[in-house]
Amino acid sequence: MKIMTPRHGCAWITGASSGIGAALALELASRGWQVAISARREADLQAVAAQHKNIHGFVCDVTDRHAMAQISAEIEAALGPIALGVMNAGIYLPTALPDFDPTLFDRTFEVNLTGTVNGLAALIPNMVARGEGHISLISSVAGYGGLVTSAAYGASKAALFNMGESLAMDLKDSGVHISMVAPGFVKTPATDVNEFAMPFIIEADEAARRIADGLAKNKTHISFPRRFSFLLRLINLLPRSTYVKLAGRFMGR
Ligand SMILES: NC(=O)c1ccc[n+]([C@@H]2O[C@H](COP(=O)([O-])OP(=O)(O)OC[C@H]3O[C@@H](n4cnc5c(N)ncnc54)[C@H](OP(=O)(O)O)[C@@H]3O)[C@@H](O)[C@H]2O)c1
Q: pLDDT tens, 4-26?
């Protein structure tokens, strides 16, 4: 599988008006990529784009399938073929049981899961036709197994792992590489509201460097910080009933 470089085309990052997406845009731009960034908040997008001449803002809601197809065509018209697509847009809405709010699940799945599918729909046919490309899905360590208050978020992120692995198998001979990213805690507007302890938390620019390094090596699974990710993967090897008891107790349940 070919490693995508700026020579093959541009990069497109969804959800890049803040946090990890914005930091990754700057990191890739500094590595020579022309970077298209999309999100809903235009002023924030333009503020990110203003930080590097290689970054270009495109307003788009990932939940709008038609708009996603249109934006990807606009990006290709402006910047050339999309060689690297990073499906990063995501939201975290904590579940607060015993109140069960199904709309919170709908909203989470719509952005994190369907939004990613809309990006894949816009990217895969063109990449397959060209016989090259790399699409990376930003999942989370919360997708490895259930975590407290993460019933909706964790389920959406677990689905991204399953979907990405399946696509990686199905696209194996197409020249299109699929990778999945599982960050631990990263300091962004999304985590700034958390009142609980966030072990091993790192800055967004550090996360961006780790993601860009993994993408440049065509890794299929990029996960960090290493110790936290390893620990979570290790306890996920336990029998599921033991995992549920242990992880719950560890998180105060
Ligand atoms: N921070 C962490 O600890 C952490 C850990 C693991 C995984 N992640 C994942 O990393 C990704 C980025 O999160 P972050 O922490 O950087 O959060 P963030 O700063 O809140 O960024 C989220 C981005 O998603 C965009 N977005 C949300 N809904 C959207 C929609 N409907 N259409 C288009 N864009 C939308 C937001 O832009 P607009 O509001 O302008 O649309 C924003 O640019 C997410 O997928 C998140 O689940 C984060």
A: 999 999 999 999 999 999 999 99
